[in-house]
Write a structure and sequence with these properties.
This protein is an all-alpha fold and about 90 residues long. The protein has one domain (about 5-89). It contains three helices and no strands.
Length: about 90
């Protein structure tokens, strides 16, 4: 079986992910990651250890995507603020 993720198509995968989450706010992604962590905890408590483990491992990349998206939003807000303060001076 061929490895689907390799150097040739890594850029295509990144562009696909970025296009899918372009319109989703970073806060929503972070709330989804927190929800995944809570669901993982609930599944572990109710005895569904394997499902809880899978959902818990899924939340880590979601948190990474949310933080990257949120960082971009904050960076653009800072740049807008700096541009408006320089115009007022």
């Amino acid at each position: 079986m061929e490895n689907l993720i390799n150097q040739e198509n890594l850029e295509d995968i990144r562009e696909l992910i970025e296009s899918k989450i372009a319109d989703v706010p970073g806060e929503v992604i972070l709330f989804g990651a927190i929800g995944a962590l809570l669901l993982s905890s609930y599944l572990n408590k109710t005895g569904h250890k394997q499902a809880g483990s899978i959902v818990g491992k899924l939340s880590i990349p979601i948190i990474g995507i949310g933080l990257a998206k949120y960082k971009d939003v904050i960076k653009s807000e800072i740049e807008n603020y700096q541009a408006t303060t320089h115009e007022n001076l």
